[in-house]
């Protein structure tokens, strides 16, 4: 499947950090109601507009997300032909996720599907060598599945290790998405032994840098999940901060105590 999920993870989620306490706690429309559907559609349109604006500013990951929105008709009119053209152009610019998006149009043609993923792997390799942790992690995934590259557990482990090193270097420089990436490596034992204590430290660092996913996951660790130690005060703090940064995600799943 297309690596759009990897792009979304790399982007680190929605982190506005601008919502007030009252806004964050305000109850939303009833689940499944016409009001909620209308609100969700408006959010999708706003998201698509943001993708296009940031794409125009040269942020290629958002160009991939804009093309994906056009392919699926989310936030804009469905236009698979335009989405495919954009994805092909991105792939020509050595954007691996663009190549993967092109591949998704050829899922019924194994040879072509693998060929586009091979192009993606080449692009990810160059980005990984340049220190992009997300690209290294995507290469690990491709070697795990054997799509576009040979299925190889040793290569998978090698790229997981490279990803972690890249994440840690970038996190030390204040890159919140990379702090989250390092945390997930320690949480899921990717390229390193599982270490809940290190995972939560990186999550707290990501949260301090306004990464909403970091706050939400830190709260889960402090609730005693994923091998974390229970700490009610910290759990509430990270729930609250995640709620402020991403009310549409965090406030729908947490109960302030």
Q: Element order, helices and strands? A: HHHHHHHHHHHHHH
Under CATH, the homologous superfamily of the domain at 176-257 reads: Tetratricopeptide repeat domain
Taking the sheet with the most strands, its summary is: none
Question: How many β-strand runs?
Answer: 0
User: What form results from the Cα inertia axes?
Assistant: globular
Q: Into which percentage range does the β-strand content fall?
A: under 5%
How many helical stretches? 14
CATH fold-level topology of the domain at 176-257: Serine Threonine Protein Phosphatase 5, Tetratricopeptide repeat
Terminal Cα span: 40 Å
Helix content: 55-70%
Structural class, from helix and strand content? mainly alpha
Briefly, what CATH class of the domain at 176-257? Mainly Alpha
The radius of gyration over CA amounts to 19 Å
Mean pLDDT: 88
CATH architecture of the domain at 176-257: Alpha Horseshoe
Topology overview:
Blueprint: H1 4-11, H2 21-25, H3 34-56, H4 60-72, H5 80-92, H6 96-103, H7 110-129, H8 133-145, H9 153-172, H10 176-188, H11 196-208, H12 212-222, H13 232-245, H14 247-250
Characterise the protein shown here.
- There is one protein chain.
- With 257 residues, the protein is an all-alpha fold.
- The protein has a domain at 176-257: Serine Threonine Protein Phosphatase 5, Tetratricopeptide repeat (Alpha Horseshoe), CATH 1.25.40.10.
- Helices cover 69% and strands 0% of the residues.
- The chain has 14 helices and no strands.
- It has helices spanning 4-11, 21-25, 34-56, 60-72, 80-92, 96-103, 110-129, 133-145, 153-172, 176-188, 196-208, 212-222, 232-245, 247-250.
């Amino acid at each position: 499947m297309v690596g759009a999920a990897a792009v979304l993870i790399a982007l680190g989620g929605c982190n506005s950090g601008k919502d007030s306490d009252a806004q964050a706690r305000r109850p939303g429309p009833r689940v499944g109601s016409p009001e909620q559907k209308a609100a969700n559609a408006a959010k999708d349109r706003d998201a698509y507009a943001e993708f296009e604006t940031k794409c125009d500013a040269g942020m290629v990951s958002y160009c991939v997300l804009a093309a994906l929105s056009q392919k699926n008709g989310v936030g804009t009119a469905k236009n698979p032909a335009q989405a495919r053209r954009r994805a092909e152009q991105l792939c020509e610019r050595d954007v691996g996720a663009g190549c993967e998006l092109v591949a998704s149009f050829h899922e019924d043609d194994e040879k072509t599907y693998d060929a586009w993923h091979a192009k993606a792997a080449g692009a990810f390799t160059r980005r990984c060598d340049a220190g992009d942790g997300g690209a290294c992690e995507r290469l690990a995934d491709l070697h795990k599945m054997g799509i576009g590259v040979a299925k190889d557990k040793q290569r998978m482990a090698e790229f997981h290790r490279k990803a972690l090193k890249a994440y840690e270097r970038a996190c030390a420089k204040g890159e919140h998405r990379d702090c989250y990436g390092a945390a997930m490596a320690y949480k899921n034992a990717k390229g390193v032994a599982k270490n809940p204590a290190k995972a939560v430290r990186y999550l707290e660092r990501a949260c301090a840098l306004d990464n909403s996913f970091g706050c939400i996951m830190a709260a889960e660790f402090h609730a005693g999940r994923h091998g974390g130690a229970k700490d009610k005060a910290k759990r509430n703090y990270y729930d609250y901060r995640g709620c402020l940064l991403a009310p549409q995600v965090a406030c729908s799943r947490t109960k302030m105590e």
